[in-house]
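Team,

Forwarding the record for the chain on the shared tracking sheet. I've put the sequence and predicted structure together so nobody has to dig through attachments.
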Amino acid sequence: MSAAARTAGQRKKRIGEVISYALSHRTRVLILIVLNEGIFTPGEVASIVDEPLKNVSNHMRELADCGSIELVKSEPRRNMMQHYYTAVQMPCYTEEDMEAMTPHQRDVTYGLVIQSLAAEMMAALWKGTLSSDPKTWLSWLWFNVDGEGREDIAAEMQRSWDRCWEIQEESANRCIESKEETRSILVLHGGFPRAKKSPGLPCKVTDS
């Protein structure tokens, strides 16, 4: 786990408070989606999001202090220090990796994933890219299952995720021939216990 992930909430805040703070301001949300793409200085981010440099610098410093983003390096430039930031780097953890973590480490890991995902979704909503694509698929529902059902849902999530990687590779191979420009499609996968017990089984909508 990265240093920022380990220290998220270092101002004695719980990870939920850290993530809520990061997502509670439009500028911070825009900063997060830029830093999801790579390493940037506050000046570069300010130019991309079209916000005043002072405001962006202040937000990025606060996000770094909380552990929501990572300070990659600092270099002297024109009698001042130039800081470079990026999103917290999250590898693809195996089930064994997750089991080896403490509950706090898992909470931090999940919290940072939620942060990136929510930022991307909010930015897409503001930009209008959700409604502009009729293939957009967003849905959620809880399912009441037994132990075996829980295992089956986890396995299905893994199969779907693996297939998305295959689709990306297939698309890249086709684009070599067609020269078609690719699009960035955000794919969501999740399956977790609900915070409260659900009242009965949800209704399944079927075609009449």
